[in-house]
Structures are given as structure tokens and as C-alpha cells.
Amino acid sequence: MPAGRGQSRLGAWFDHHVYSLVASVGRMLGKPWATLLTVGVMAVALALPLGLWAALHNVQRFTGDVQQARQLSVFLKPEVAGARATELAAQLRARGDVVAVEHRTPEQGLAELRERSGLADVLAGVDGNPLPHLLLVTPKGDEALLADTLQALPEADVVQHDASWRQRLDGWLRFGGRFALVLAALLGLGALLVVGNTVRLDIQARREEIGVLQLLGATDGFIRRPFLYLGACYGIAAGAIALAMLTAADIALRAPLAELATSYGSRFALQGFTVVQAAGIVVGAGVLGWLGAGLVTGHYLRQTRPTDT
Asked: Oligomeric state and partners (predicted)?
């Protein structure tokens, strides 16, 4: 008998959760314009920091691989033969402060210059190949120290090492990431307040019903549950719309950005949210709505419960 009573209580608890969810969806659909306004404001508040984060992520990808960005370009002297350049590349690969070395011959450099610079007609009139052998060295440790070492090689003519642009870019990216977090916190608070105010209006409209439930001995959890699901539904809908907005922006920008990257010899393409990230955004938005509804409902119940006893 106690086991049957326990199962009955569990079934009633589950049924009320299902009823609260269905009733919340019904209340949203029953006032479409108000729902659209609330969800739209939340969606914009969520889309702004998410869009900024996605933009920063793609900028980091556009700057290239970190190792590639740290490469040192060692232009050998014109009189250095191909065999010596190959031997020097092998010696550098054996160093502990070097990750990799790529040897580009003058023929490879000239072919790449013709392909990417658009100067094929001009280069066709040049006798011979004026380009030297090039070693692309990827450092493992301190790149500035390695650049000084490479410059001291008797075969080296010029060592290109300009990491200042990358350091400045990294600083801007760190600032952008911090700014995205601050913006997400502020707009997330705004979204939470929007849900809280919407739920507060719904509580005011059902004040008499809540008073009757309190007189009948309903627990705070029982009364709060439908409003929690209402807030969660607002949040989930807002998260889904925010993802749809960002996906539409991604589709609109993908083709022209790919053409621009191709003109610079890059295969860069915009990368959107993964399935796991998209699911996390929707769930996080639902949790945000749940919290907003919980705060408002809890505050209302703390105010009304003592006066009704």
C-alpha cells in the first residue's frame, strides 16, 4: 500500500510537470504578439554577444595557424646553391628550438609569384630567375632569439621576422573576448529581466487563482512550476531564434567573404556553431528564462504567503 501510494505521488508529480509544460506552451500561443515581442527582445539580446563571439572566433582562424604566423622567412644569398640550401634546411630541422623547416626553391617561388600577384606578363619578360632559395622556419621557443641566430648564418641574406603585428592582433582579440563576455553578462541580465517582467505580468493576471491554491495548501513548488516552464519556454524559443538570425547572417556573408579570401590566395570560410554549441546555446537560454521566472515567482510567493495564513 505505501509503495502504491509512493508510485501514485510520483505519477502525480510527473503529470503536473507535463501539464505545466503543455499549459505554458498554450499560454504563449494564446497571446502570439506579446510572446513574439518578448522572445524577439530576448533573441536580439542573445544574438549580439553570440555574434561577436563567433566573429572573434573566425578572425582568429583568419589570422592563420599560430605556428604558421610565427614562421621566420630566411632568404638565402643569391650565390647559395640548391644543394647547400637543402643541407642547411636539414641542419636547422635538427635544432631543438625549431619545429619544422620548409625549403622553397627559386622556381617554386617564381611560380607562386606568377600565380598570386597577377604579374605573369611582367615576369615573363624577365630573363632568368632573380629569386633566392627560401627557408620557412617554424620556431619552437623564443622566435626573436632564433631570428637573431638565423641572421648570423653566413648563408642568410635577410630574415623576416615581424611579430609586432601578431602581438597587437592577439591583444585586440583578447580585448574583444573580454568585451564579448561583458556584453554577454549585461545583455543576459537584460534577457533575464525581460522574462521576469513577462512572468510577473502573468502572475498578476492569475493572482486570484494563486490565492485559491495557497488557501488549499498548495506548496510553493506546485504554484511556481508552471511559471518556471513558461520562462524556460521563452528562453528556448529566444535561443532558437537567435541561432536562426546568426545562421541567416552567416549564409548572407559566406559567399562574398569566400570570394574576398580567394583573391588573397586563402581558402578561408566562415565557420558557424557546431551542433553541440547550438544545443548548448538553446539549453543555456532556457536555463536563463527558468532563472528569471524563478526569481520573480519566488519573490511574489514570499510576499503573499504570510498574508494568507
From this structure: Forms a membrane-associated complex with FtsE.
Euclidean distance between CA atoms 160 and 149, whole angstroms: 13
Q: What is the pLDDT of residues 4-20, one digit of tens each?
A: 555 567 776 667 677 77
Domain ranges of the chain: 2-65+167-308, 71-162
What residues does 135 pair with on adjacent strands?
Answer: 74, 103
Alpha-carbon distances, residue 245 vs 43, 45, 238, 239 (angstroms): 9, 12, 10, 10
For 39, residues 6+ apart whose C-beta sits below 8 A from its C-beta are 234, 237, 238, 241
Grid cell for residue 85 = 640550401
Domain 71-162 has CATH 3.30.70.3040: yes
Residue pair 104/134 in contact by the 8 Å Cβ criterion: yes
Comparing CA positions, the residue from 22, 27, 17 lying closest to residue 198 is 27
Q: Which grid cell sits at 47?
A: 544574438
Q: How far is CA 275 from CA 45, 87, 99, in A?
A: 21, 48, 34
* End-to-end Cα distance, the chain: 33
Contact call for residues 261 and 267 (beta carbons, < 8 A): yes
* φ, ψ (nearest 5 deg) of residue 98: -125, 130
DSSP letter string over 207-261?
Answer: HHHHHHHHHTT--HHHHHHHHHHHHHHHHHHHHHHHHHHHHHHHHHHHHHHHHHH
Q: How many residues are there in the chain?
A: 309
The tens digit of pLDDT for each residue in 44-82 reads 888 888 888 888 777 776 665 444 456 788 888 888 888
Local structure of 136: helix, strand or coil: strand
